[in-house]
Design goal:
- It contains 21 helices and 6 strands.
- It is α/β, with parallel strands linked by helices and 487 residues long.
- It has 3 domains: 1-145, 3-Layer(aba) Sandwich (Rossmann fold), CATH 3.40.50.620; 236-335, Alpha Horseshoe (Serine Threonine Protein Phosphatase 5, Tetratricopeptide repeat), CATH 1.25.40.80; 342-481, DNA Cyclobutane Dipyrimidine Photolyase, subunit A, domain 3 (Orthogonal Bundle).
- A 6-stranded mixed beta sheet has the order 1-6-5-2-3-4, with helices on both faces.
- Strand 5, helix 4 (126-134) and strand 6 (140-143) form a beta-alpha-beta unit.
- It is globular.
């Protein structure tokens, strides 16, 4: 059974025992494995002895909609359509063909449902979807599978990774981890049933032939085509292949080489985690396979130190990213409603940036100049070029990317706006809690005052391209992403 800590009743309407099916409205955790929301939907379908319908849509009317994001999501939907074909569920993938084309679909499908389960996601479209679901005349449950810990386990927002890590270590060591089903539909017997034909005629689902040509399907949609497909293919199958490749070929040196742009020893899982194609639980299972780690391995006497995980250096470094830093971002989005606004920065950061807001800038650039990688800084231009072409920036250079935008913007408020715009438009993991963590970290969130006090930055941590070149090798990176590079 799904833990009550992950469940929220979204409205006051009762279940309808005479309904035709249990409905899972899949919007954030877009996968059929390791999914607490699907676990809950299966549980309810078994309790009511009803069929299970999964409605997974993608709309056109979201900010930063473009070919890149749509194609990645549709590749994941193709993955599920094929995987669920032989399973005891009616999968209903819907793609809006024109703006407003989805209006009424959820209400029509929910009207025939016993009850509805949906994903409880704290940012971007998530809260608006829950508001829409709350108006439905049938019981709606939101299920949280954002991370290893239920979001609401933490009673407050945490100001730093150190403070949050200390909380996570203590919580997991004491209570352990709840586990989703690896395969929620495996071995399940449910009655057959599907959505009424009249609804399917009004809102036709994506056909198998369309999924066979996702590129053609995307081209036919009224989307911004200037931002083309990114560097990876979407879907849970691809996500698991990237995970296997990382564990087998890059994990052993992750701690030592993850900050080297020339090598790119990252896991490459960020877009898959963002779009819900893989869960942190599945990543953790594979990461710990072959070890004897249990929650009892955590050393709570480390008092929030990174080594407290009780693992080797590379596994420790990676689990700290996927648990501490990733879930800290979700924690912030839940407890800090203005998480995406400059005003949400710590008082000390806003104060020092205000003190230096009028400092002279040697260079300033407009959004269009930054977007086109037209600055005087070759390393920054290469990072921006990687973002535009591939939809990502090497993790270490992403920090430098943000710091330089702060340095080159007329004000820190404008710097925050520019970072959000560029990142959310181009990055495959844009609009994610972790994206906002990275952007606002460059402005002081989760950090402390640093000395010496500098122009423009004040007491906010400083980074420069020259220092980055001295600390790590970027020769191959510049050859690939610089002018005339071999992208």
């Amino acid at each position: 059974m799904v833990s009550s800590a992950r469940l929220r009743v979204i409205n006051t309407a009762p279940s309808n025992p005479d309904g035709e099916y249990v409905l899972y409205y899949m919007t954030a955790f877009r996968r059929h494995r390791y999914n607490f929301a699907l676990d809950r939907a299966v549980e309810l379908a078994e309790d009511f002895r009803k069929p299970l319908v999964i409605l997974e849509p993608i709309q056109l009317n979201y900010r930063w909609a473009c070919v890149r994001h749509h194609r990645f999501v549709l590749e994941g939907m193709r993955d599920r359509a094929r995987a669920l074909q032989a399973m005891p569920v009616d999968y209903y993938p819907f793609v809006e063909r024109e703006r407003g084309g989805m209006l009424g679909l959820l209400e029509a499908v929910a009207a025939q449902a016993v009850c509805l389960v949906t994903d409880d996601y704290p940012t971007f479209h998530g809260p608006r979807i829950l508001e829409q679901c709350a108006t439905l005349p049938v019981r709606v449950e939101g299920v949280d599978h954002n991370g290893l810990l239920p979001l609401r386990t933490a009673p407050k927002g945490f100001p730093s990774a150190y403070a949050f890590r200390r909380f996570v270590h203590a919580t997991i060591a004491e209570a352990g981890l709840d586990r989703p089903s690896v395969d929620p539909l495996g071995g399940v017997r449910l009655p057959e049933g599907d959505v009424a034909g009249a609804i399917r005629e009004r809102w036709p689902p994506v056909s198998p032939a369309e999924f066979d040509d996702v590129s053609g399907l995307v081209r036919a949609l009224p989307l911004d085509a200037t931002i083309g497909a990114g560097w990876v293919t979407g879907g849970s199958t691809e996500a698991r292949e990237h995970l296997d490749d990382f564990i087998n070929h890059r994990l052993a040196a992750y701690d030592e080489r993850r900050n080297a742009p020339d090598d790119d020893w990252s896991s490459r899982l960020s877009p898959y985690l963002h779009f819900g194609h893989i869960s942190a639980h599945e990543v953790l299972d594979q990461l710990l396979a072959g070890t004897d780690w249990t929650p009892a391995s955590i050393d709570t006497s480390a008092r929030g130190g990174r080594p407290g995980w009780g693992l080797d250096a590379s596994r420790t470094a990676f689990i700290d990213q996927i648990v501490t830093w990733r879930e800290l971002g979700f924690n912030t989005c839940l407890h800090l409603p203005q998480y995406d606004e400059y005003a949400s920065l710590p008082d000390w950061a806003r104060a020092t940036l205000t003190d230096h807001a009028s400092d002279p800038r040697q260079w300033t650039y407009e959004l269009e100049e930054l977007e086109s990688a037209s600055t005087h800084d070759a390393l920054w231009n290469a990072a921006q070029q990687q973002l535009v072409v591939e939809g990502r920036i090497h993790n270490y250079l992403r920090m430098l990317w943000g710091k330089k935008i702060l340095e080159w913007s007329p004000s820190p408020e404008e710097a925050a706006d520019v970072m959000i715009e560029l990142n959310n438009a181009y990055a495959l993991d844009g609009r994610d809690p972790n994206s906002y963590s990275g952007i606002f970290w460059t402005l002081g969130r989760y950090d402390r005052p640093w000395g010496p006090e500098r122009p423009i930055f004040g007491k906010v941590r400083y980074m420069s391209s020259d220092n980055t070149r001295r600390k790590t090798s970027v020769t191959a990176y510049l050859e690939r992403y610089g002018p005339g590079g071999n992208l």
